[in-house]
Sequence to fold (483 residues):
Amino acid sequence: MGKLQLRCVLALLLVTVCAPSVMALTVAAGASPTQAAIATSASAVSTATIPASGSAVLAARIAALEKQTADANLDANNAWMLTCAVFVLMMTGPGLALFYGGLVRKKNVLGTMMQSFAMMAIVTVIWALFSFSLAFAPGTSIIGGLKYVFLRAVGGAPNTAYAMTIPFGTFMIYQLMFAIITPALISGAFAERMKFSAMALFMALWSIVVYCPMAHMVWGTGGLLNAVGGRFPTLDFAGGTVVHVTSGVSALVCALYLGCRMGHGEEPMPPHSMVLSFIGACMLWVGWFGFNAGSALSAGTLATSAFIATQLAAAAGALTWTAAEWLRQGKPSALGSISGAIAGLATITPAAGYVGPMAALAIGALTGGFCYFMVVVAKAKFGYDDSLDAFGIHGAGGMLGTVLTGVFASSMINPVFQGGHLHQVMNQLIAVGIGVVLAATGTMAILKFVDLTIGLRVSQEHEALGLDLSQHGEEGYYWEVPA
Fold:
């Protein structure tokens, strides 16, 4: 065997036998799997001079190794994103269903939980038919086109305009979970007084008229507020404007349009089961990691940063709300603590992928006091009946969080932010303004339409009886009376 042939064989043996050890050391040093593969091959090649035929074989092996690495990266990120999609769906059912269900009176628990469950079915069908396309297909700067209607061209290949390392189908199903929970949040404002049929029609139209344009403007290709290339680049990592501002403002409009519940301000309407609400809030907290960390769209360091920010803001929000309540009322309540945590989670949503840990703590701390004021003081002063505080927590928190994202954003966390906090805050304010106008006008128009066609509010008799029996013919609790 000639010397060149011997060197070629030795090089190939080094690649085959030593690759795992070299790759492990390289990855441990902080390199990506692809970089590790290249370094492994390079270390072997450097030990020998290989003729043309040997080089071709080695190049083929390197190409195969790089493909295997890319496939493994795709599989890992896909597994992470599918898990996050499950967590976000869990936020609606059972998380939000339990949270809202426990806060209403016993006669309305099933009716309230059904509103969240209905969104899991109604929005899913609309999303598959055309809503996903309106939100994420190329179109105008306001609304997407029809390229993805009936989920055409939405399959296993990544769409590099959105995520390079997960299938486009995974991106679609993950975004669906956001589209489900956003209208479900609104139901907290009109709890105990809207007909189920009216709710279903209103929510279906709202998801098309309000949610799709806002999602496209902020996250869609060519969107007006897109952080990369938009006319007013807005930093909204996981839905401060798309989810919380739109749902919160729409909730306030619904509360004002429908008016107060019978007996509001005249008789107590305490939660019928804080246990249900407590469990629901804890599930929301856990699910929110899929909401925020999942918005990194990969299982990388940005997901870790968003995960940390989410936990810190939720904890700070819970503590500051509890402290404010303790000082004002003399006792810390379970309802106050879980409300503060949800407020912190809502407020950190737009900032989770742009701010560091200490900024997340600051945002959560500011949120607890601000949302406590909106729920306890402002609502009482103005007299509106936002039954479950959808506006006070999600609307107010979403606006505050969106603005504070511009204040605390760091290019060290996410290079999408290019610096210039004052300019960024102005863009954030513009995005909030657009969200408020779109949500308020769209919601009012839909409410008018539904009210004129099938009517919105249950009759006084049905409201007194409760939504469980009047709308669904069943009760949440059957108490056996001994003979």
Remarks:
- The CA atoms of residues 244 and 398 lie 5 Å apart.
- Residues 52-103 form the longest helix (52 residues).
- The chain is about 70% helix and 0% strand.
- The chain has a mean pLDDT of 90.
